[in-house]
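Model it.
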Amino acid sequence: MKKIAVIMAGGSGERFWPLSRRRKPKQLLNLNSDKTLLEESIERISGIIPVDDIFIITGELLLSPIRKVLSQFPPQNVIAEPYKRNTAPCLALAAGIALAKYDYAYDPSEIIMAVLTADQLIHPIDGFKNTIENLMNFVSQNKVLATIGIKPSRPETGFGYIELETPFDFNSQNFEISKVKSFHEKPDIQKARFFMNSDKFLWNSGMFFWRIDKFIEDMTDCLPEVGTKILSLRDVYLNKDDSALNGPLNEAKEIFSKFPDISIDYGLMEKAKEVVVAKALFDWDDIGSWDSLDRFRHLDENSNILDGNIILLDSENSTIINQSNNKILFTGLGLDNFVVVVTEDAVLVCPKDRAQEIKKIVEQIKKTDRESWL
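Modeled.
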């Protein structure tokens, strides 16, 4: 069996603007440590899967920036998708590339794919490795699509949920698997509270696992306009896997241009019949917006997050990030529950409870012809 990992690392740099930009979305930011989120993601899975078998799928605009940040990573394993078409076409491309790379050595039934993202916080690493290894072994022996579920720690309205057929024992560190009864989209606060208090609902981690033969079979059944083209994508990339491609191939563009814009959740996971979920033996969180930093960054005695050249007085519950390279001294007085981000060319100020609306600012920048600030 050949075990591979695919890390989806697209993004447009909107939710963490102005620190994130089109050529530097959040997975290329140091939000959690001195390493970027993408580097942390690679480091976690490289303890299980060799770096040569890890693939990063990104947008054409991010191809060079990612290769620059990952200077020790195989450049040919950083691949640009032809067009932005959401996660279902992205993973079809990843499967085609994997089939091309291992064409002469492994049958599709012998290639196990782990699909990961580049913007999640996970610890402890040993629990992560234990879960991944057990789950990849399970899908190698069973023709199923699999994901990982996280026990909710709060009534989160920003995540999707998975309903179990059989509840897990979260007092145990034993590996467990249940059939998925159904997937649920992001709920309102009342439903999120119900989900949190039930033992049958888990957060959807967005990580997926399958044998490539099973993936092709189910994609062909559930999303034929994409699934039937996976072997065509393989043919496009056959004998090209050892060279660092500086952009999408024209043949791949032609195939991709006809794909719908659809997520793997809608296009496959919610329609497929044989879907299972594994219990996470680790803590997990998603870094979604500036206000999420409160959950994992150091807070001072007034519950502030301070980073950079800052003088702050009589202020609390605020996140102040100054990355102007000491060109600007930020000072604040009487701030309560604010987010302030300073870069060399832009400043963001907003109430923390509206941090998830920052996309509106990005949209206004586009409308007013200020693209250079994106």
